[in-house]
Amino acid sequence: MTQLNFVTSFNEDILKQSTPYFLNLVKDKWDPSINLTCYYHDCSLESYSLPDTITYKNLKDVEDHELFIKDYKKHNGTEDGQIPYNKNLDAIKWCHKVYAIADKAYELIHNKDKPDWLIWIDSDIYLSKKINKEYILSLLDKEADIAYMEEDPYFFAFNLNHQPSIDLLVDLKKAYSSGEVINYREWTDSFVLTRLINLYKTHGLKVHTIKKESLDKFVHFNNNYNTIMNIRDEEGNRLVQLTDKVTPDIIPTRYKQLADIVRHYKPKSIIETGTWNGGRVIEMALAVFESADKLDYKGFDLFEDATTKTDEEEFNVKAHNTQAAVIKRLQAFRAKMAEKNKEFTFSIEKGNTRVSLKKSTADLVLIGGGNSYRTVLNDFNKLKESKIIIFDHFFRKDEEEVMPKEAYQGVNKVVAKLIENKKVKTVILPSSDKVAKGGYTHLVFSTADLSLPNLPSSVQSVPIHVDPRDCVPKDYIRNNIISNIKNIDKWLDKCNGHDTIAILVSGGPYLNIKELKQTIKDNPNSKVICVKHSYPTLLENGIKPWGCVVLDPRPITGESTHGIIRTELFKKIEPTTKFFVASMTDPSVLEFIRKQTDNIYGWHAFTESLREEKERNAGVKNNQVSIVKELGLPEGATLIVGGTCAAMRSIGILHTLGFRNIHFFGFDCSMEEPSKEERKKTTGAEDEKPQPKYFKVTVNNKNFWTTGELLAMAQDCERTFGEMQLGMLFTFYGENTLVSELWKIAQEKNNLLDFRKEYND
């Protein structure tokens, strides 16, 4: 019979506020066959009357926990008083959950032949109905390794009958015990766990996503940011929300368009429906204050009046904030701006805009509250006399022909009527922002003032998307793999994280050798890793790479994508260089290198050619991969993902080798303007319509010449820089290239997030 083992943790603050209430609800509402172990720290239980049907354990008795507290006590969010408190850099705060889960997992694995499910649950939740074992099992998938809600992971299940789940927990604990977490951008358990899950997915981790609504009828919670407690009645309607902080900011790509519009038109007054946490108004105000000193803002939101009924009606999937918390945040922002002689005035109204919103005008209006036609039409009719109206949440279908259902297409319906009105200028702005349940969402610009200047070009540029495909047939790649598995003796293996800096050198034409040499000099223990196109250049300049990554399924005698005969790239080889050769590489390349060195290590690059045909045909995504058995890949083999070329796969290789700090050189993805003759050249497979080989793109209002292959790499860079995946630290070198501009955009976005976080407390 399957066992369900729950675990949670708390300190004295949580114990005083909500834990006794939660534990008594467990006693009254949980099936007695469900086990719960509570780990506590920094408190004593002697003064509290707690249910004796629950197991309690002091984290002081967990040796590894105490060692971590002792060894890393200065990493408490202030670095021993050296910086203002930052909760994301408080390793002590976030380690308790990790060691509680790890300790309970160890106990179950070593004391039971079949340890079954270990489930983390936050200790500040509210149970509105009785919970039985059958209900919990209905949320899980016995074939999965882990099961959780991506949106609000207060419920997280690990299948301890499966080795990948155990390995994941070992790595989670190791990230803290080894101190590796201190190298990450954030030291929270959720940050580390999310990155580990993403990494393990590429190795075949089976993940079952639990729908939030499946738990909402039974369990409501105070989430990891300690921002909100939802308590609902038996029908699931939210009754109250308790909060002293706002929810974390989200900055999708289209909000950069919004900021650019604000900079361009310089409004003195803004009205917004759907204030949410106040983050958008802060971003808009900062754009205004770049060239002006005053802004008046009026915001409207349901705040704590929201219910699950209004969430369903308006297609809201985000947690709500209280009015008081948002006002507090904007008051802090107002005070901060006053220090810079900027005047920010605001008013915030709570309630349904169908009632609370009166006929008003402003220089710029953002309609971004509800998504029902009734609400969007109401907000538009009451604000339509304003100079500029921006609609959020204009939906369109994604590649799988999915989009939010018609009941939520209120903006689409209102905008359709505006487009028919020749006296109104209406523009749907390009967007690649995805909707959680399918589809894309856009901003729409509308104005009846036809004398206004045109929209800035930066918000109307259509993003070019390249969908790369393997450059040779899948059977060719599979034959390469089968051959190389037999001929490569040493293979890449996963290493623990360490502090050594990796200097990754791609083959861009604007590589600054002088700056590269200085960086190597400044970091004498660093390792230089390159791709084949930069290898000869480095050797010519007296730089001996520690490693060279090779990913090329085409013969050694052919011409590379850079127009160079491949044999020339390996004409001279430094014996100390480690060659990391992908198993899909053409065997002729492997043999050519082997004639000069045996310092070769194999690795497996994930490609669709590896996937079972039935999965390929079904369009299965990368997180649960069945590899073609005939290839001979060992079970559980590490598959390196991360991009379309060797330079981008190198990031995954470096992470596997334990590197967490990477310096980027030669990542350009752009070139000098080709000649008129060169621009006439086309490219494409035989079954594709020929496309121009060279074309011009615009980033940050700067034009760059590139190719399809380079643009695909640039897209990979944009995604990697934006997500900072796998907890790595990145430093970028280079100016006035396509990728350097993408780096700047990512840094601006991250800096804006950090700036806005100042007003969360």
Provide the descriptors you would attach to this structure in a database record.
3 domains; Spore Coat Polysaccharide Biosynthesis Protein SpsA, Chain A; eight-stranded parallel β-sheet; sialyltransferase cstii, chain A; single chain; Rossmann fold; eight-stranded mixed β-sheet
CATH class of the largest domain: Alpha Beta
Rg value: 28 Å
Q: Which bin fits the share of residues in helices?
A: 25-40%
Report on the biggest sheet.
8 strands, mixed
The counted number of beta strands is 31
State the CATH topology of the largest domain. Answer: sialyltransferase cstii, chain A
Rough outline:
globular
Query: Which band does the percent of strand residues land in?
Result: 15-25%
- In terms of structural class, how would the helical and strand content be classed? alpha/beta
Overall tally of structural domains = 3
Number of helices: 26
End-to-end Cα distance: 47 Å
Low-pLDDT parts are: 220-243, 615-624
CATH architecture of the largest domain: Alpha-Beta Complex
The average pLDDT score comes to 84
List the helices and strands and how they pair.
Blueprint: E1 4-10, H1 12-17, H2 19-29, E2 35-40, E3 55-58, H3 63-71, H4 91-111, E4 117-121, E5 125-127, H5 133-139, E6 146-148, E7 155-159, H6 163-177, H7 189-201, E8 207-209, H8 212-216, E9 219-221, E10 229-232, E11 238-242, H9 254-265, E12 269-273, H10 279-288, E13 294-301, H11 308-314, H12 323-338, E14 343-350, H13 353-356, E15 364-367, H14 373-383, E16 388-396, H15 410-420, E17 425-428, E18 433-434, E19 440-447, H16 457-460, H17 474-487, E20 501-505, H18 513-522, E21 527-531, H19 535-540, E22 547-550, H20 566-569, E23 578-582, H21 587-594, E24 600-605, H22 613-618, E25 639-640, H23 646-656, E26 661-665, H24 676-679, E27 682-683, E28 691-692, E29 694-699, E30 702-707, H25 708-723, E31 729-732, H26 738-757
Parallel strand pairs: 1-2, 1-4, 2-3, 6-8, 12-13, 12-15, 13-14, 15-16, 20-21, 20-26, 21-22, 22-23, 23-24, 24-25, 26-31
Antiparallel strand pairs: 4-7, 5-9, 6-7, 10-11, 16-19, 17-19, 18-19, 27-28, 29-30
Helix pairs in contact: 3-4, 4-6, 6-7, 9-10, 14-15, 25-26
